[in-house]
Amino acid sequence: MCQGLVGCPACLVEGTHLVREVSVWDVHSGAVLARPIISAAGSILLSEGQKLTEQQIKKLRKLNIKTVYVRTEVTEQAAHAKEAALPEWTFPAGERTASAQTIEQKKVAQAVTEFLDSPRVKGLIAISYMEETFRRYARQMFQTIVSRPFLLEQLTTLYRTDLFLFNHSLNVAVTSGIVGLALKYDYDQLLELTIGAMLFDIGMSQLPEHLVKSTDTLTDWQRAELASHPILGYQILISQQEVPKAAALCALQHHERFDGTGYPYRLKKAQIHPYAQIVAISDVYNALISPRHYRNAYSHQEAIEFLYAAGNKYFDLSLIKTFLKHICVYPESCKVLLSNGKIGVVAAKNIDTPHRPVVKVIREADGTPIDPPYEIDLKKHVDVVIVQVL
User: What gap in Å lies between CA 300 and CA 384, rounded to an integer?
Assistant: First the structure.
């Protein structure tokens, strides 16, 4: 059991407090909550900073809530521990178990490493000063995930179920993490969000393969079966101590919608956990710009237009704006086709409107090279949009 020692992997220093995850069977009355306690449906049962009573503890046990985060005072020296540099990425470091030694799991762990080093990920962050911080955090978080037996096992299950699903989950985890960093989440919150974002679709692994990979129009019965995957995924994740409750809620609530039209519980607005709201936007965006078994990929511009149209309907508009401001849709130097038929190269980002960058036009609509090339700022020329990345 954790003894509240600084440096314990189950503890986190926040300000002048030490945060510990404690079993509800070990927690005592008078303990101060360091995190709110959220029900499976997403509602707040007890708020952060609240002192627990014996009656509340008994209720938590009846509700089958396994652990709570509590805080205790620590010394000034310990309070500065959170400023220490994160460990360097030395994959495959960390604990190695028998299950992590399987060939398939090694392949999955290596795929995660290669994904982080891919050009797509390196060019995803629209705000330059965030790049180094996010790369450092992302490597440490992904290393932590693949070093935990249950989490690696679930990632391997996704890989085995469907490669599309596996790659999609990695993309959602990265874009969700960028949004979390933009919202100034601390490392502990970013790790919870990343775990939830990486495993939010694990419930799909419980469905028949023909349904997951179907290219046909689904029947009403098949759609109903497919819609069961959030609850299936939540049941898998919530049963494990390695998965924070907030991360498990990403599986349960990623199909809930801001206006209450989602599923499985028709939650709305603040009833949906913030992590699940971020994952929902990342899920839809990455799904739209990627090919699926039943359709080709949509253009980035079409995906952006869909998100804006869904503002305060399916998703919180302010969160959509944060997402689109910090996710680099068109990295510098990528070649693009414009709606007027001309071809250009992205020359510079527009911070406020990253989906409308400055483009250096290099070829006319009829194919004639332009010499010298000229720049067009799509933020100012609203009648022209990017229709395809070449």
Answer: 14
Contact 139, 187 (CB under 8 A): no
Nearest Cα to Cα of residue 199 among 263, 248, 138, 163 = 248
Residue 1 pLDDT more than 90? no
Per-residue exposure over 35-69, b if at least 16 CB sit within 10 Å of its own CB, e if not: bbbbebebeeebeeeeebeeebbeebeeeebbbbb
Q: Please give the structure tokens belonging to residue 32.
A: 């101060």
- Which of 70, 86, 197 shows the shortest CA–CA distance to 145? 197
- Cα Rg, the chain, nearest whole Å: 23
- Residue 41 confidence class, pLDDT cut points 50, 70, 90: low
Burial 194-211 (b: 16+ CB within 10 A, else e): bbbbbbbbbbbbbbeeee
Tell me how far apart the alpha carbons of residues 303 and 280 are, in angstroms, rounded to a whole number.
Answer: 14
One-letter amino acid of 329: V
| Chain segment 272-308, per-residue pLDDT in tens | 999 999 999 999 999 998 887 777 888 888 898 899 9
pLDDT value at 214 more than 90 = no
Say how far apart CA 236 and CA 18 lie, in whole Å.
Answer: 29
Q: What is the rounded CA–CA span in Å between residue 312 and residue 85?
A: 39
Among 327, 201, 328, which Cα is nearest to 276's? 201
- Is residue 92 very low, low, confident or very high in pLDDT (cuts 50, 70, 90)? very low
Per DSSP bridges, beta strands 17-23 and 343-348 are: unpaired
Specify the pLDDT at position 316. 97
